[in-house]
Amino acid sequence: DSDRTEMALHALASLRASMDPDVHEAVAWCEAHLPVGPLVLTHGDLLPQNILIDLDGSIGVIDWQFAGPGDPAADIAVLTRGVKKPFKLSSGLETVVRAYLDEGGQLLSTRDVFFHELRMVAAWVDDGGEEHYRGRLRACLRRARGS
Fold first, then answer.
1. Could you report the per-residue pLDDT of 96-127, keeping only the tens digit for each?
2. Which residues contact residue 104 at a Cβ distance below 8 angstroms, ignoring those fewer than 6 apart?
3. Distance, CA of 114 to CA of 140 (rounded, Å)
4. With 90 as the cut, is the pLDDT of residue 128 above it?
5. How far is the first Cα of the chain from the last one, in angstroms, to the nearest whole number?
6. For residues 122 and 8, what is the distance between their CA atoms, to the nearest angstrom?
7. Considering the entire predicted model, what is its pTM?
8. Which one, 69, 90, 99, 107, has the greatest CB density within 10 A?
C-alpha cells in the first residue's frame, strides 16, 4: 500500500462481501470517511500490555513483531477498541488523539480512529464473534456518525 487511503481500501475489501446488515452499515460509513496521508512507522499491536510505565514515569513499548508502515490511527484504534469511554474517560479518544498530535504525530482525527475501530469491530462481528461485539459496533457507528 502506498498511502493511508489505499491501505484503508485494502482493509475493507474482505468486509464488503459481508451479508450482515450492521457490517454493511459500518463499511458504508468507512468508505465515505477514508483516512488520507502517508504511511508512517506503526507498532501494529499497541495493546495496553505492550506499554510499560516505570515508577519514574518513563514509558516503553515492547512486542514490535507487527511493526511496519501503517496508519497511526489504526494503532490508536487498537488502544481504544471501539468502546464509548476509552480509559474510562468520556473524552478518552480525544485525549489520546490530542496527546499523539502534541508529541508531533502525523495529522489525524478522531474520525480516522473511528474508521479503524469500525473496521476492526465489524471484522469481529463478521467472523461470528460474540453478540456483545454487535452492540459495540452499533454504538461505535453512532459515535462516528456524530463526530
1. 999 999 999 999 999 999 999 999 999 999 99
2. none
3. 7
4. no
5. 27
6. 14
7. 0.90
8. 69
- What is the grid cell recorded at 71? 496508519
> What are the cell numbers at 106?
502525523
* 24 contacts: CB under 8 Å, gap ≥ 6: 18
**CA-to-CA distance for 68 and 134, rounded, in angstroms?**
30
Residue 1 pLDDT more than 80?
no
Contacts 24+ apart (CB under 8 A), 122-127: 122/15, 122/18, 122/22, 122/23, 122/26, 122/27, 123/14, 123/15, 125/20, 125/22, 125/23, 126/15, 126/18, 126/20, 126/23
